[in-house]
User: Fold NUDIX hydrolase from Zongyangia hominis.
Amino acid sequence: MKHIDLLEAFRPGCEQEERDLELILSLAHADPLGILTRRSLTAHLTPSGLIFNPDGSRVLLVRHNLYGAWCWTGGHADGDPDLGAVAVREAEEETGVPVKLLSPAIAALDILPVYGHRKNGTYVSAHLHLCPSFVLIAKEEVPPRALPSENSGAQWFNLADIREASGEAWMYPIYEKLIARAKRYR
Assistant:
């Protein structure tokens, strides 16, 4: 499914998602390829996923190099209009664990600020990540591993420990949405 079709099919669960969807769709219709690639320097699509174990009691998080916090997986679409496939690919690259989509539908939608920073020796200006999120499933039997270019670790956490592990207060409401929506898919 093309990225615009997938975005248009998303049903917001709160006012924040309604407003973010309006903005993302306006950007998508104005420049469909720009938000799908990094050609748009101000905002681009970065599908993410929260990885649950099969019974939904634990999540697999990575220790993000840039933010120094335990967080979900995700990355730039880089031209791929299959946003769910991007979320799966990023999760597998960042953890070394095979994952699958619990549902092909976008589970949550957020716009996240990225502050100016250096990456690979080059300055990256502040911009927005247009973040469709997916619920992913993985078996705990496969030991996770870090992807040093992206993170310094990958580890399973009990749901009750996500807030403390993350340390990013602004991210916890997103995780809460994904936890609640994952329960509806089951």
